[in-house]
Amino acid sequence: MKSALTIGTILLLSACVPTTTPTTETKPSTKPTAAAPKAPQVTRSASSGVSAYKRVAQRVEPVAEAACRSFSRDMPRTFCDFRITVDQDARKAPNAYQSVGSDGRPVITFNINMLRTIKNDDEVAFIMGHEAGHQIARHLVKKRSNANAGALLGALVMAGLGGDPTDGANLGGAIGAQSYSKKFELQADRIGAHIATRAGFDAITGARSFERTGGSNSLLSTHPPGADRFNTVKQTVGQIRAAKAQGKTAPITWQ
Ligand SMILES: [Zn+2]
């Protein structure tokens, strides 16, 4: 049985790779495609990008699933059964995101322009691990409850001001959904660094895409600055290496 909560999470997804414009919460299936984005800086052909994606997914998916299961014993089995897909729509700006399908399985999607801008397998692995991190840390569920709390508060405030409570609910819901976005991105970066490393990739090289995208310093951006994200990955990899030097495996943490 699907819970109402699970169904609610279908409506939210997390867009994770800032490109020319930061992407916010969207429903990919219903959102009309915006005007053609500025041509991305492609580094490879579509088929080469898809090959890299498949090659990396074979190694990262089992690691991500095992990591997810270790934190999700209270969840249905589908919760960690990642589906990894490619959106072939070449009109979309480079992006990768995590969502939840109607069957309750988490879905990690890279679009084709994302795969054409990626420089190496380490970048694919890190981003894939980052997206899995959103699922492991239950960010979509948390964003949904933040949105609901914000909508309720917004409606009450707007009604108190004599305005339309629906407007207040819409605004409050949007603010609520974003309220933890930057924190969630850094948490997903930590988990992504662990997953990529465990799958045998170099997470620091993988996080160098931040140097190209730069993150975003906009107040309303859902993403922290690229330097913060890169430093978070470096710090996490430092902890992983320190544990390894003592013959231990660093536990996955994200707080
Ligand atoms: Zn993200």
UniProtKB/TrEMBL annotation:
Biased composition (Low complexity): 19-40
Cofactor(s) of this protein: Zn(2+)
Keywords: Hydrolase, Metal-binding, Metalloprotease, Protease, Zinc
Pfam families, sorted: Peptidase_M48
Cofactor descriptive note: Binds 1 zinc ion per subunit.
Annotated signal peptide: none
Region (Disordered): 19-51
Entry annotated with the keyword Hydrolase: yes
Peptidase M48 domain boundaries: 64-236
Origin: domain of life: Bacteria
PANTHER family to which the protein is assigned, alphabetical: METALLOENDOPEPTIDASE OMA1 (PTHR22726), METALLOENDOPEPTIDASE OMA1, MITOCHONDRIAL (PTHR22726:SF1)
Recorded family membership: Belongs to the peptidase M48 family.
Protein name: Peptidase M48 domain-containing protein
Native source organism of the sequence: Paramylibacter ulvae
